[in-house]
UniProtKB/TrEMBL annotation:
SMART domains in the cross-refs: REC
GN (gene name): cheB_3
GO molecular function, one term: protein-glutamine glutaminase activity
Residue intervals of the Response regulatory domain: 3-119
The organism of origin for this protein: Sutcliffiella rhizosphaerae
EC number from the UniProt entry: 3.5.1.44
Keywords assigned by UniProt, alphabetized: Cell projection, Cilium, Flagellum, Hydrolase, Phosphoprotein
Name of the featured protein: Protein-glutamate methylesterase/protein-glutamine glutaminase
Keyword Secreted: no
Length: 296
């Protein structure tokens, strides 16, 4: 079960977040505090998986507290909740390691959605740790099997990038990981095959030839939707902090920069239900090349 600690000097906010976690069955709140040194002691002793923390607090602000917790070895997830709209402060929060920034007043639907994403990330992280431990155990007993670990290396390399883009929990991420594994297994040249052929290869891992057309279409939709979410996440970071390391690294690498700018403009003007073009072929091509580099 996922454990949480809520750090906020406003008692009403703490109660509201705790109620959302309990009502939506998202885990268990094992700490609720106004902040300061007391909060640091509670967190270090109870070691919750996730900390929901306010930015502005009397004794220590949220950013200072995150820095101090990390110096003491805490490595859980941070979600910042605040009414502050200052882009520099929000950017600083991302730099020190928060996963999400939720603006007050608290919206229960938004909090639930964010916590579900965090829970999926934690579940995937735990699975990776378990797989690594199993492989380490096998390799210690049978060193000759070491050369067979390359497949996991591909998975890890792709997962690392997708996690950075905030889409590891999306359904299409599984399709993308399988696509990269197949491309590397088949030793494709640095140029990808046509997308239709790639989707067919992935579909063959799930269904027989009878249902392959339907499955291929579903994979195409999942992959496009996942890449669209990645674009939205990168654009959101760029709106908050144009110099954020993830924005600088990924905005023009995986996407057409004009598409990123268009998405940022749409988000800045609060345009809803707008469709933004994504260059799926470029995204997958770059991901393939990045994966090849990471597994060398």
């Amino acid at each position: 079960m996922i454990s949480y600690c809520i750090v906020d000097d406003n008692a009403a906010s703490r109660r509201m977040i705790e109620n959302i976690i309990e009502d939506c069955a998202l885990g268990k709140v094992i700490g609720s505090t106004i902040g300061g040194r007391e909060a640091i002691d509670i967190i270090l002793s109870s070691k919750p998986n996730v900390i929901l923390i306010d930015l502005l607090m009397p004794e220590l602000d949220g950013i200072e507290m995150i820095k101090e917790l990390k110096t003491h070895g805490y490595n859980g997830k941070f979600i910042m909740i605040s009414q502050i709209n200052n882009k520099e402060m929000v950017g600083e929060a991302y730099k020190v390691g928060i996963e999400f920034f939720i603006h007050k007043p608290i919206n229960s639907i938004e909090v639930e959605a964010v916590l579900k994403k965090i829970n999926k990330q934690l579940s995937l992280d735990q699975s990776i740790v378990a797989i690594k431990a199993s492989l380490a155990s096998i390799e210690s007993m049978q060193p000759a099997l070491n050369h067979n670990s390359s497949k996991l290396s591909v998975m890890e390399a792709v997962q690392h990038i997708l996690k950075d883009l905030g889409v590891l929990a999306e359904k299409g991420s599984k399709d993308i990981i399988i696509a990269m594994e197949l491309l590397i297994q088949k030793d494709y040249e640095r140029e990808l095959p046509p997308l239709n052929e790639l989707y067919k290869l992935v579909a063959q891992r799930f269904v027989g030839e009878k249902n392959i057309i339907k499955e291929k279409k579903a994979i195409e939709q999942r992959v496009r939707r996942t890449i669209g979410v990645a674009l939205k996440n990168i654009a959101s970071i760029g709106l908050t902090d144009y110099t954020h390391p993830k924005f600088e690294q990924y905005a023009s690498l995986f996407f057409e920069f004009q598409d990123v700018r268009n998405k940022m403009k749409a988000m800045e003007s609060n345009q809803k239900n707008t469709t933004t073009k994504v260059n799926v072929k470029k995204f997958l091509q770059v991901l393939y090349l990045e994966t090849l580099e990471k597994i060398k």
